[in-house]
Design goal:
With 726 residues, the protein is α/β, with parallel strands linked by helices. The chain folds into 4 domains: 215 residues, no CATH class; 142 residues, FAD/NAD(P)-binding domain (3-Layer(bba) Sandwich); 135 residues, FAD/NAD(P)-binding domain; 118 residues, 2-Layer Sandwich (Enolase-like, domain 1). It is built from 28 helices and 21 strands. The strands form 5 sheets. Strands 1, 2, 3, 4, 5, 6 and 16 form a 7-stranded mixed β-sheet that branches. Strand 5 and strand 6 form a beta hairpin. Helix 3 packs antiparallel against helix 4, helix 5 crosses helix 8 and helix 5 crosses helix 9.
Length: 726
């Protein structure tokens, strides 16, 4: 600590001296020119020392000093002095940053440095080399930021010495050209050498970027021969949401598109995900409505569930929607649809069961599958997943669901309403782990009120199969989870203790997440290793390490949502086909999410949990739907609307709706955030009465009430009361 204090004091003293004694004049041309006229060698030494010190304490102005070096010492001497002075000074700044700030910054802002840390880990010095050639940040900022990374000091110096050489040449050359001007007139300036120097200075970033791209491209594609002609413009692997939208966009752009699918068109969403689950939820809601009909004065008797017919309708819904995603439709659009197992054998060639198809661009949209944990005995009890659930012929009497995320909550409520006795197990301290505790607690209370047994902080340890039943052994999760649960026990009624639970069940559903489908695609052989969860790493334009190979949807993440895949698909198709002219960065800031329980949960942007985790200060405004006329009339007055805004302003940072039709109502906030409409605009928008959408206006009104101009209203009150009787 003492060493840090001494170093901080020394740097502070230098900065104080710089400003106290007008240090700017020592960085000027006049100072060096006067000194150079008397003692050239001393001038070189003073210049070198000032350059090193200014760089070491991160005083901006390196470009000006470099140009001055060229004006004073000429091209080659200037390059020699600047090259070593800048590298030594940069290394000193690097060491100062590392010594004073690295541990604290890495601990506090690790998420913000993750991209740079990953770049250093994967590319090492080459990452810094790219920044030096094409600086995304100022020279001094790169020095400080690199000091916060694990990069070796020797690597930093050597790469900086080499990487800055081209830029040093350009700036010193510009200074030398300026120094050679005899008179500052049109004739003196408009010489070929001066014009060429300034032209080179202006074009340098573009030229370097072009050279780096060429070198990088040759490095990446080394060992592969690019075909002279291609079979098609675009190959898309996977005909789920991402693949279908990419194919549609490609066909719209008049590209020749080949779409490869190994199973069913439409992917998980149509066949085993969104469509069948929502059809099942609709049947379950009808059952719940009939059970609640007496509260509306309607006697319907005892409703009975015909599970076979329920599942039959689910299949009918799939069959009805299926033509929207069919081979026939996309063939009519001009897409060549191919069935088979796709495998990349080069950056431009895909093998489909022995048939090789070449394309200039390839999009991987292979989707994801349910994650299956390694639990002893699980294979003996014939576990269900969100893919195999739809083959059920009989309604399980005792239904165990492992996983309290969106899928687990939706299906737990649906099967409970259809007549199963459901137990929902979540290993974390709350259901819906990504949502606010208030939201999770509300949802848990709703599920428990309908008879669902909820166990948080529990995980499935072992399964056993017996002749007449199955047995699950549930154990408390980690100690940290238990502590977290105890903190929230006041708001949650979940069963959560340190006791082992053994329970009998008939069927079990595993809903703990999804794993990207990247096996047998040939990615490892191409040098595109998947992440731990199977996803493929892409840049902001959805390009893999091969710029002509892109990816979208569940195979990329970070959202495993149908509309997120469709959103990414547009960027993948456009960037793939038109990227050489214009690229578009994917924007995830405004991504709505809906949990289709009853009540529904809709959210967009930040919630309280995320704001706290990211250290973002927000203002929270909430409106209770128990006060909404239409909700009262519908006998469904439960839930709330919560909006996060910039403190003191109406700019929306995020919104969460818990209540009826939340999935529809949240879209107003999506539109508002997309087009920068604040709460004042929502408040001033007329809505039909009585509708649930009035709730969005009322929450804006709640915000407005907290920000009324009290002084102005006091003046208005006095004005209006001037003629009233006292």
């Amino acid at each position: 600590m003492a060493k840090k204090i001494i170093l901080i004091t020394a740097i502070g003293g230098l900065l104080w001296a710089y400003f106290a004694f007008d240090g700017q004049r020592y960085l000027s041309l006049d100072f060096f020119r006067d000194l150079y006229a008397q003692q050239p060698l001393l001038t070189a030494g003073v210049y070198f020392a000032i350059y090193v010190i200014a760089t070491a304490i991160s005083i901006p102005g390196a470009a000006l000093l470099t140009i001055i070096g060229g004006m004073l010492f000429g091209l080659w001497t200037g390059i020699l002095l600047v090259s070593f002075a800048s590298s030594i000074g940069a290394t000193l700044a690097f060491l100062v940053s590392r010594f004073l700030l690295r541990d604290w910054v890495q601990a506090t802002f690790s998420s913000h440095l993750s991209t740079i840390n990953q770049g250093i880990e994967k590319q090492g010095g080459y990452y810094l080399f790219g920044l030096r050639l094409i600086p995304l940040f100022p020279f001094w900022m790169i020095n400080l930021v690199m000091g916060l990374t694990p990069l070796k000091t020797s690597t930093f110096y050597l790469v900086s010495q080499l990487g800055m050489l081209a830029g040093t040449f350009v700036y010193v050359n510009a200074g030398a050209s300026i120094g050679s001007i005899d008179e500052f007139s049109a004739a003196g300036i408009m010489t070929p050498g001066v014009i060429l120097s300034f032209l080179l200075l202006a074009l340098f970033p573009l030229l370097v970027r072009a050279v780096v791209n060429v070198v990088d491209r040759r490095k990446r594609y080394r060992g592969y021969k690019k075909p002279r002609k291609f079979d098609t413009n675009l190959i898309i692997i996977g005909a789920g949401s991402g693949g279908l939208v990419s194919a549609y966009i490609g066909a719209t752009l008049k590209a020749r598109v080949t779409l490869i699918e190994r199973d069913k068109m439409g992917g998980d969403c149509l066949n085993t995900g969104c469509v069948p689950s929502k059809a099942l939820i609709r049947a379950a809601k009808s059952m719940a409505d009939m059970q609640k009909a007496a509260a509306l004065g309607i006697n319907v008797g005892a409703p009975k569930v015909d599970f076979t017919r329920v599942m039959g309708r689910v299949q009918n819904v799939i069959n009805t929607i299926e033509p929207h995603d069919s081979v026939e439709r996309y063939t009519n659009l001009g897409v060549d649809c191919v069935y088979g197992n796709a495998k990349l054998i080069s950056p431009w060639v895909v093998d489909v069961d022995g048939q090789q198809i070449s394309a200039e661009k390839i999009i991987i949209a292979s989707g994801a599958r349910p994650t299956m944990p390694s639990i002893p005995g699980l294979d003996q009890v014939d576990p269900l997943t969100s893919e195999t659930l739809w083959k059920l012929e009989d309604l399980p009497k005792r239904f165990l669901i492992v996983g309290g995320g969106a899928i687990g909550c939706e299906l737990a409520q649906a099967f409970q309403r259809l007549g199963s006795q459901v137990t929902l197990v979540e290993m974390q301290a709350q259901l819906l782990p990504r949502d606010d505790q208030q939201v999770a607690s509300f949802m848990q209370q709703c599920l428990e009120s309908e008879g669902v047994r909820v166990l948080t902080n529990y995980s499935a340890e072992k399964f056993e199969f017996h002749a007449d039943h199955c047995l699950a052994e549930l154990t408390p999760s980690s100690e940290s989870s238990s502590e977290s649960s105890s903190e929230s026990s006041s708001e949650s009624s979940s069963e959560s203790s340190s006791e082992l639970v053994q329970m009998e069940f008939d069927r079990v559903l595993i809903a703990i997440g999804r794993t990207a489908n990247t096996e047998n695609l040939g990615l490892e052989a191409l040098g595109i290793p998947p992440n731990a969860n199977g996803t493929i790493t892409t840049d902001d334009y959805l390009r893999t390490c091969y710029p002509n190979i892109l990816a979208c949807g569940d195979v990329v993440g970070p959202y495993q949502l149908t509309h997120a895949a469709s959103h990414q698909a547009w960027f993948a198709a456009v960037n793939g086909l038109l990227g050489r002219f214009k690229k578009f960065r994917v924007d995830y800031r405004i991504m709505p999410q809906v949990v289709f329980t009853d009540p529904q949960i809709g959210r967009v942007g930040l919630n309280q949990r995320e704001a706290e985790q990211q250290g973002i200060v927000v203002e929270i405004t909430q409106y209770d739907l128990s006060d909404l006329d239409r909700a009262i009339a519908d006998n469904d007055a439960q839930g709330f609307i919560q909006v996060l805004t910039v403190p003191g302003k109406d700019r929306i940072l995020g919104a969460t709706i818990v209540g009826p039709q939340a999935g529809e109502l949240i879209n107003e906030f999506v539109l508002a955030m997309k087009h920068n409409l604040g709460l004042n605009k929502l408040l001033g928008t007329i809505r039909s009465y009585p509708t649930l959408s009035e709730g969005n206006r009322f929450v804006a009104g709640e915000w407005k009430r907290k920000h009324v101009p009290h002084r102005l209203l006091a003046i208005l009150q006095r004005y209006l009361g001037r003629n009233l009787k006292r």
